[in-house]
Design a protein that fits this description.
Shape: globular
Number of helices: 18
Number of strands: 16
Strand order of the largest sheet: 2-1-3-4-5
CATH class of the largest domain: Alpha Beta
CATH superfamily of the largest domain: P-loop containing nucleotide triphosphate hydrolases
CATH architecture of the largest domain: 3-Layer(aba) Sandwich
Largest sheet: 5 strands, parallel
Radius of gyration: 26 Å
Length: 461
């Protein structure tokens, strides 16, 4: 059960939150910011409902202290209807959302659930962050494909042009976007993230551009959209390929001239917001399928950056593994400090379809399941790493006395046959495991007279 801390000096407001939320969440309460900070010292908290006007430690001071401590807890600001400006300032200081008193039960329930979900998603996407580093120093990897992406991102940090980060899920697109923001001239301004796949289509324009009072049924107060909240800073549009088609022309206009109209308003809003987009979809394919506007694609694809999948940067796996061990071992009380060569070889040969996100979760599982061990062996990966099987010990004695060409052929045969076994005899996957192409693998198999044993490649031969 998630834990929510409600901080408000009004007993009636605290009681309202208790009645609304205690059936769904574990509730903690504080009368002011000072008490709230004391509770954070003793309890794990998943979300905070924070009043801005309180004695001893105000809401803004509370947010500043959370930032100083490095607390990663989402905050929903609770404010009076005449204090929207203060709520916006709080969001720029790190709050996720705001709710205006008096509030409705359904409004609070929806906002709490959505904020918890978005925070969880952001934590899953932020897979390369180092606690002691920031910006580009937090990105781990030395492989050429990864370094090319980082170099392009460094160039993007110095300008305000729109950036489109592409790549599979779990490759660290959000982390790269944060590095661009924190290393550029907008580093001291807001970084606002909006997941285009997490908002219902009928609410998307309101979330992005805001709405005026009475714009639609239930719009009892003015609501600022993320585009305006990020004014002066950066708006990160994650999974832009899933943006509702009807919202795309309005985003195109905002990108072209920096203005937009909130829903239900005839007054245009001018903003200075830098846009960074990310997607795991092939946008040209989405254009052909009628799901994405071609003119919007050209507008967001000014500075394209492709994040490589982990299988294309296998040489970074040992460094990533060491980092994730250092990051998670103290938290789960594990003694593990390193991996034996056989275990590391298995990590490097696995295809990692979930990329760095999957690797971090797998390393944490390894730590939990083997916390009393100091060194991870290949046997420790059985049942954790898919298709994991310890390598048979085979010294170099079998190669002694052989001509070098025959020794090389035997070794290549062994490696190819093992890769085919691990991949279920799918040649394209086996080629990924070996760090080569399917064409080269097929040539080697023909050269060494290796039978694939399943003929599962006919459809792509």
């Amino acid at each position: 059960m998630k834990t929510i801390l409600a901080i408000d000096d009004e007993p009636s407001v605290r009681q309202s939150f208790r009645m609304m939320l205690e059936d769904r969440y574990r509730m903690l309460f504080a009368e002011n910011g000072r008490e709230g900070l004391a509770i954070l010292d003793k309890h794990h908290v998943d979300l905070i409902l924070l009043d801005l006007t309180m004695p001893y430690v105000s809401g803004m001071d509370f947010l500043a202290e959370m930032e100083r401590r490095g607390e990663d807890v989402p905050v929903i600001v609770v404010t009076a209807s005449n204090s929207v400006t203060s709520a916006v300032a709080a969001m720029k200081a790190g709050a996720y959302e705001y709710v205006i008193k008096p509030f409705e039960i359904d409004e609070v329930l929806l906002l709490v659930a959505r904020t918890l979900a978005q925070h969880l998603e952001q934590n899953e996407l932020t897979v390369l962050r180092q606690a002691s580093a920031s910006g580009f120093d937090a990105l781990i990897g030395d492989s050429p494909t990864f370094l090319r992406a980082v170099q392009m991102a460094r160039q993007a940090a110095d300008v305000d042009s729109t950036v489109l980060i592409t790549g599979e899920s779990g490759t660290g697109k959000d982390m790269l976007a944060r590095a661009i923001q924190s290393s550029g001239k907008r580093a001291d301004h807001a970084y606002v993230a909006l997941s285009c796949c997490a908002i219902p289509a009928q609410l998307f324009e309101s979330e992005l551009f805001g709405h005026g009072k009475g714009a639609f049924t239930g719009a009892t107060e003015r609501h600022l959209g993320k585009m305006q909240v990020a004014d002066g800073g950066t708006l990160f549009l994650d999974e832009i390929g899933e943006m509702p088609l009807e919202a795309q022309p309005k985003l195109l206009r905002a990108l072209q001239d920096g203005t937009f109209y909130p829903l239900g308003s005839t007054k245009s809003i001018e903003v200075d917001t830098r846009i960074i987009c990310a997607t795991n979809r092939n946008l040209p394919d989405e254009i052909r399928n009628g799901n994405f506007r071609e003119d919007l694609f050209y507008r967001v694809n000014v500075l394209p950056i492709e994040m490589p999948p982990l299988r294309q940067r296998r040489e970074d796996i040992p460094k990533l593994a060491a980092f994730f061990v250092a990051k998670h071992a103290p938290r789960v009380n594990s003694k593990i400090v390193t991996f034996e060569p056989g275990a590391m070889s298995m990590l490097m040969s696995y295809s990692w379809p979930g990329n760095v996100r999957e690797m971090e979760n797998t390393i944490e599982r390894i730590l939990v399941c083997n916390r009393d061990k100091a060194v991870i062996t290949d046997e420790c990966l059985l049942g954790i790493l898919p298709n994991a099987a310890p390598e048979k010990a085979s010294g170099l004695t079998e190669f002694e006395g052989l001509p070098i060409e025959e020794a090389v052929n035997r070794l290549e045969r062994h490696l190819i046959e093992r890769a085919l076994e691990r991949s279920g005899h799918v040649q394209s996957r086996a080629a990924d495991l070996l760090g080569t192409t399917r064409r080269i693998l097929k040539y080697k198999m023909d050269q060494l007279d290796i039978d694939n044993g399943g003929a599962r490649e006919a459809e792509i031969a």
